[in-house]
């Protein structure tokens, strides 16, 4: 059997695939964070809470309304996005133009409030969500059994991430958004409603977090702390990729998932801190991140 540094190659391939699954969630979550910071200059610490909210919306409509996985996958991000847009319209908008530290403190408090509310209503124990029948089973790759649902997560995450990047970087709507954040007065002079555009952007980005939560429901148990367990790692991904860099965030999220998986083979005890070690090294060498630009 072929080995690499004493480890069978098939084991490494298995960890790469598992790492891609985690990396898909990192990419989806960090993508929304990067857009919110790059376009709105808001450090959104409540992103993990919206991820948790997406998982709970999926679970609630299945458990109490009998709505299955596929409709839930559409309903969850829409509901989360509407809640996010409402919070931006009524609360977060007042913090534009001030030190981003204020938005960090505000969104941190909002995240704690949401997590506490859901813990009070549903308890701390996780809520199981059944695997959709159309995505049950798996593929026997010879060196591992790869569940179909994991393949689906990787594929849909790549499609959503690329589609979001394309919409912002290559379409007229994305050009309006970038221009509106850089010079809102000039853009409004052309008849474009910049405040509404910013609200839609924030709603879409937290909707991405809700979509990730809906995807995670059949893999992980839905619980109040599911977002809190990821948000620090996701912030590290955004910092490494470059604050505000959309493409950099996607690439970094997927890559760090793979690196994390490989670290579990060579240095299992260090796998939980790998991302933070990389963040420290990147900040020392390139403070703007691997793909970031001078602000």
Structure explained in plain terms:
- The protein has 295 residues and is mostly helical.
- It has a single domain, classed as ABC transporter involved in vitamin B12 uptake, BtuC, CATH 1.10.3470.
- 69% of the residues lie in helices and 3% in strands.
- It is built from 11 helices and 4 strands.
- A two-stranded antiparallel sheet has the order 1-2. A two-stranded antiparallel sheet has the order 3-4.
- β3 (138-140) and β4 form a beta hairpin.
- α9 runs parallel beside α11.
- The radius of gyration is 19 Å and the shape is globular.
Radius of gyration, CA atoms, in whole angstroms: 19 Å
In CATH, the architecture is: Orthogonal Bundle
Using the coordinates above, name the CATH class.
Mainly Alpha
What's the helical proportion of residues? 55-70%
Mean pLDDT: 89
Shape: globular
**Helix/strand structural class:** mainly alpha
Summed up, the helix count is: 11
Quaternary structure annotation: single chain
How many domains make up the 3D coordinates?
1
Outline the biggest β-sheet: 2 strands, antiparallel
Q: List the helices and strands in order.
A: EEHHHHEEHHHHHHH
Strand order of the largest sheet: 1-2
**Low-pLDDT windows of residues:** none
| Alpha-carbon distance between the two ends | 50 Å
The percent range for strand residues is: under 5%
Q: Classify the fold: give the CATH topology.
A: ABC transporter involved in vitamin B12 uptake, BtuC
What is the count of β-strands? 4
Summarize the model shown:
69% of the residues lie in helices and 3% in strands. The protein has helices at residues 9-40, 47-63, 69-90, 100-122, 148-170, 172-182, 184-189, 194-216, 228-241, 246-266, 274-285; strands spanning 3-4, 7-8, 138-140, 145-147. A two-stranded antiparallel sheet has the order 1-2. It has a two-stranded antiparallel ribbon with strand order 3-4.
């Amino acid at each position: 059997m072929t080995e690499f540094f004493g480890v069978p190659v098939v084991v490494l391939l298995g960890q790469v695939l598992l790492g891609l699954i985690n990396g898909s969630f990192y990419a989806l979550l960090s993508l929304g964070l990067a857009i919110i910071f790059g376009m709105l200059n808001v450090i959104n610490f409540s992103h993990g809470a919206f991820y948790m909210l997406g998982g709970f919306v999926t679970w609630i409509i299945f458990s109490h309304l009998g709505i299955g996985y596929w409709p839930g996958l559409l309903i969850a991000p829409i509901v989360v996005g509407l809640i996010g847009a409402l919070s931006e319209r009524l609360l977060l908008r007042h913090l534009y133009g001030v030190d981003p530290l204020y938005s960090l403190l505000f969104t941190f408090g909002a995240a704690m409030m949401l997590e506490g509310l859901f813990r009070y209503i549903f308890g701390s124990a996780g809520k199981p969500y059944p695997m959709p029948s159309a995505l049950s089973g798996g593929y026997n790759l010879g060196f591992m059994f790869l569940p179909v649902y994991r393949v689906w997560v990787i594929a849909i995450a790549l499609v959503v991430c690329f589609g979001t990047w394309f919409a912002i970087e290559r379409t007229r709507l994305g050009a309006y958004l970038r221009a509106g954040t850089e010079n809102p007065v000039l853009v409004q002079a052309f008849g474009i409603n910049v405040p509404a555009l910013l609200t839609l952007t924030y709603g879409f980005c937290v909707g991405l977090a809700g979509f990730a939560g809906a995807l995670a429901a059949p893999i992980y148990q839905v619980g109040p702390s599911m977002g809190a367990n990821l948000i620090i790692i996701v912030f590290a991904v955004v910092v490494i990729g470059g604050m505000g860099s959309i493409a950099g965030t996607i690439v970094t999220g997927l890559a760090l998932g793979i690196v994390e998986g490989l670290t579990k083979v060579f240095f299992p005890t260090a796998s939980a801190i790998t991302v933070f070690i990389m963040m420290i090294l990147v900040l020392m060498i390139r403070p703007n991140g691997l793909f970031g630009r001078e602000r």
